[in-house]
Amino acid sequence: MLNRGMGQYLGLRYTEITPDSVRAHWTIRPDMHQPAGLVHGGVYCAVVESMASVAGTAWLGDRGHVVGVNNNTDFLRAVREGTLHAHSIPLHRGRLQQLWLVNITDEQHRLVARGHVRIQNIIDSAKLGTS
Q1: In percent, how much of the chain has pLDDT > 70?
Q2: Is 81 a catalytic site residue?
Q3: Which residue intervals define the domain Thioesterase in the entry (predicted)?
Q4: What is the pTM of this model?
Q5: Annotated catalytic residue within 16, 49, 81, 107
Q6: Domains, the chain
Q7: Which of 7, 52, 58, 130 could lock onto 100 through a cystine, CB 3.0 to 4.6 A?
Q8: What is the predicted pLDDT for the residue at 131?
Q9: How much of the chain is helix, strand and coil, in % rounded to 5?
C-alpha cells in the first residue's frame, strides 16, 4: 500500500506508522512545482490525503478499508526545495468516520501547510466502485 500510486510518486518515506500517529518526509523535486517555481498546492493536498489514509487504515486495521471523503488543506508558507515532514494525528475516530489532522513542516520546523481529512470507514469494500 505504501510503495505504489500517489505515495510512490510523492516519494513519501514513512518513519512512523501507528494507530495514533503517522510520520513521513519527502524531498521536493522540480516536477512538484507550479509555474512560479513553488511547491504546487496539489502536492500538499495529496500528502495530507495520503497521510490521513495511512493513519486511518492503521487504526481501522483488519476491520475494513478507508476512503477520504473530504480534504481541506491550507497552504501557509511558500517552499521551493528541501525536505518536508508530515505528521498525522487523530481528531476523531468513530464507527463510521474518522477525522485526521496533518501538519507539514520544513527543515526549520516551520509550519508550511496543514489539512484535515474526513475518512469513511468501509467495512464491505467489495462494493466500492460498483453501481
Answers
A1: 96
A2: no
A3: 37-113
A4: 0.92
A5: 49
A6: 5-127 (3.10.129.10)
A7: 52
A8: 65
A9: 25, 45, 30
